[in-house]
Design goal:
Blueprint: E1 6-10, H1 15-27, E2 30-36, H2 39-49, E3 71-78, H3 83-94, E4 98-104, H4 110-119, E5 123-130
Parallel strand pairs: 2-3, 2-4, 4-5
Antiparallel strand pairs: 1-5
């Protein structure tokens, strides 16, 4: 009963947008919204991201000066992305961050997906298949 091997599939929403996000991230700090299917998946993602997160010392994360090479976590949760995730990412962009939406084993609602694309926010969706 060991752990099952996992296969990660990147179903990125447009390779050009994802590539542009990667280039922007190299030059400016990134604001991220994370959504996962389960609390365990979300906790694993947050554990990987933790060394790179901006330390906000209890302050509101928005309104902080951007720091190159750092990640601002504007939203995270279990379940499909919501409208407020997009709103926070747009606000972070206005404050100098490159926005990015990441999902693990959840899908964007088609209407929200259109709004995300119209807003120019890169979305990377990942599915993990246990074999």
């Amino acid at each position: 009963e060991g752990s099952m091997p996992a296969r990660l599939v990147d179903d990125a929403d447009g390779g050009a947008a994802s590539s542009a996000a990667g280039q922007a991230a190299a030059q400016q700090p990134v604001a991220v919204a994370l959504r996962a299917q389960s609390a365990g998946e979300l906790q694993a993602l947050l554990g990987e991201l933790e060394p790179h997160l901006l330390d906000v010392d209890g302050a509101s994360p928005l309104g902080l000066p951007p720091a190159a090479g750092r990640v601002l976590l504007v939203s995270c949760g279990v379940g499909a992305p919501r409208e407020d995730d997009l709103t926070l990412l747009q606000q972070a962009r206005r404050e100098g961050f490159a926005p990015a939406l990441y999902t693990l084993n959840v899908r964007l609602d088609p209407r929200l997906g259109r709004r995300v694309r119209q807003a120019g926010v890169p979305h990377r969706g990942f599915d993990v298949f246990y074999e």
